[in-house]
Amino acid sequence: xxxxxxxxxxxxxxxxxxxxxxxxxxxxxxxxxxxxxxxxxxxxxxxxxxxxxxxxxxxxxxxxxxxxxxxxxxxxxxxxxxxxxxxxxxxxxxxxxxxxxxxxxxxxxxxxxxxxxxxxxxxxxxxxxxxxxxxxxxxxxxxxxxxxxxxxxxxxxxxxxxxxxxxxxxxxxxxxxxxxxxxxxxxxxxxxxxxxxxxxxxxxxxxxxxxxxxxxxxxxxxxxxxxxxxxxxxxxxxxxxxxxxxxxxxxxxxxxxxxxxxxxxxxxxxxxxxxxxxxxxxxxxxxxxxxxxxxxxxxxxxxxxxxxxxxxxxxxxxxxxxxxxxxxxxxxxxxxxxxxxxxxxxxxxxxxxxxxxxxxxxxxxxxxxxxxxxxxxxxxxxxxxxxxxxxxxxxxxxxxxxxxxxxxxxxxxxxxxxxxxxxxxxxxxxxxxxxxxxxxxxxxxxxxxxxxxx
Amino acid sequence: xxxxxxxxxxxxxxxxxxxxxxxxxxxxxxxxxxxxxxxxxxxxxxxxxxxxxxxxxxxxxxxxxxxxxxxxxxxxxxxxxxxxxxxxxxxxxxxxxxxxxxxxxxxxxxxxxxxxxxxxxxxxxxxxxxxxxxxxxxxxxxxxxxxxxxxxxxxxxxxxxxxxxxxxxxxxxxxxxxxxxxxxxxxxxxxxxxxxxxxxxxxxxxxxxxxxxxxxxxxxxxxxxxxxxxxxxxxxxxxxxxxxxxxxxxxxxxxxxxxxxxxxxxxxxxxxxxxxxxxxxxxxxxxxxxxxxxxxxxxxxxxxxxxxxxxxxxxxx
Lengths: 454, 317
Prior knowledge:
The complex is a heterodimer. Chain A is α/β, with parallel strands linked by helices. Chain A has helices at residues 2-43, 65-81, 97-107, 121-126, 134-139, 148-153, 176-181, 186-189, 193-203, 224-231, 249-265, 267-274, 300-306, 345-355, 358-368, 375-382, 389-401, 418-429, 435-452, and strands at 54-60, 85-91, 113-117, 155-156, 159-160, 163-167, 170-175, 205-207, 210-216, 290-296, 313-316, 329-331, 333-337, 371-372, 405-407. Chain A has two domains: 53-167 and 332-406, 3-Layer(aba) Sandwich (D-Maltodextrin-Binding Protein, domain 2); 170-331 and 413-452, D-Maltodextrin-Binding Protein, domain 2, CATH 3.40.190.10. Chain A has a six-stranded mixed beta sheet with strand order 2-1-3-13-6-14. Chain A has a five-stranded mixed beta sheet with strand order 8-9-10-7-11. Chain A has a two-stranded antiparallel sheet with strand order 4-5. In chain A, α2 (65-81) runs antiparallel to α15 (358-368), α15 packs across α16 and α18 (418-429) packs antiparallel against α19. By secondary structure, chain B is mainly alpha-helical. Chain B has 14 helices and no strands. In chain B, α4 (87-117) crosses α9 (192-202) and α4 packs across α13. Chain A binds chain B through residues 14, 18, 21-22, 25, 95, 98-99, 102, 105-106, 123, 127-129, 267-268, 271-276, 282, 340, 415-416, 418-420, 422-423, 426-427, 430, 445, 448, 452, and chain B through 38, 41, 66-70, 81, 85-88, 91, 141, 148, 152-156, 171, 173-176, 262-263, 265-267, 270, 278-279, 281-285.
């Protein structure tokens, strides 16, 4: 008797364990069908002239905060002003969106419009992941509306595959009160590398293990790669012809300069504070511990959120390597793309054009403090009445800084080169190699990688 | 032990053979069918989500597949590049081996240790068991972010506690010499899963063994060494095999804790799977990544085989 009831129990147990599995399997199927169901329904009406309704799926990673509010409002307005096109905004988490997009494109059920990384447009153009937009551009050339270096990133073999949406640029934030107390004028105190070094020494208070104020440490939130391109007249690790340009004399000098800073403050101090940047009110720049710091200009949103009302900060471009060398900086950004083989490229492009038009760009910037790709939008924001003085200053500074901001798209002949360079740079900062040795080795490694891709 | 095991094995084999020869009655057939039906979710899942992708990976490893528009047969080029040109392949393999070498013994020993402690009959033991098990049900990004704060060099809890006893803690995730130890330390936090297995096994160790040992005058350490440990070796073996396989697949921690999977300072957290992921999704060298996955498969297969071969020497069934 006992045995039988045990057997029964087992069977019930199995059914109970199997049921959720089966249900889960069905559930998956269900959602997959829902997703796929869109395409056949919309497949039929590629021709929108007839006035048939088209629905578009739009993916981005703006999941919360002002960006999400802004984009949802913008999409809603678009839907209201367009009778035949309905856009559905779909949020995909930052960590997943592009791998998901790749899988969706390979699987033939891609969304209609995706927000993509500005640095890898050519990679996707080469891999036929993105729709060629050149025919639309030929009809109505909007390329001049955007900052030229941003437009460059979307062009592959002379044809455009994406439209730039927003960008960012790296600048120096400084504590106005600290500089004033020391009797320094920001205009001259941060002009060149020598100037900023001298200013930092003036502002430094305390010593190893007991700092009250740290004037400036260049590698806090600005990479060695950015200082290297700043020194080398805006040339990144690859020059304009696509040659590896890592161990140039200017870049070696830049790395040596950074090593001197590391020796000056000591790695213990540097590591200690590095972990605390970006942690809200504990941020050492907000707390006054650090007087000047490099950062993306969008750091302004952090300050707005976490800094006290009377916190007085200014923004300056990255200092020049030497006078007349140029305030070269670096930026990134995002673009809008239509995946290859989607059903409604024309309607999708209309939506993209809407999102990148000056008015809509201005609206997005106003709410998110993002630096927009459309020049006119940024220019309008510089004097926008809804922004306070600080907000206007951010856009003015950004607009000015973008003149000497370099974007570094992934080179097609060595897409994964960056870890090789970083290994060598890290070796230099660990004092395992001199700056010259490290960059020589990096040059060799990356040249070797380029060969592997040939 | 060797002999008894072999004889058991032989017995099982001969039973299996007679089973094969035996003609099945209607009822048995029906039962077998039901059995298959019940395991079918696994079989279908395995074929669809494991076996076919593995087969595809195998084929893809000989191509320059980029997921969308390229899949040309390039022979052994991926493997040649891996072993002769790709500098990061050796780095990632070293990092992973280092991690496995420390993580597996430490989590196993930690699991046994905790289980033995929690096997005591004292008041409130259930509460303690729950407390020690809890961390292992938390997982994912939230835990890693939490640990990044705990390990923060100046304000993190770990270094704060160390400073109370006069130790100035390392910079953990910022110092390439300490990144892997930090990660290994962090993984100890989820030792609860293994602990639960050991706890269940410990409760099955016959009491009379301890009693007779006590009569012979054995102390607690001797009892542990000569009774407890041998009796739970099958589970230790199971734990070692599965956690070795799991440790080779470390990815998420490094991906989250090194801004977007860059590999951390001096590539010290560039684990095998992270390098593979970067190749597949950043550099779009899916074919190369597939070749890497094949090599990892072989490494794990060989290690598991060695584990199985060594098992009869120390596992007591």
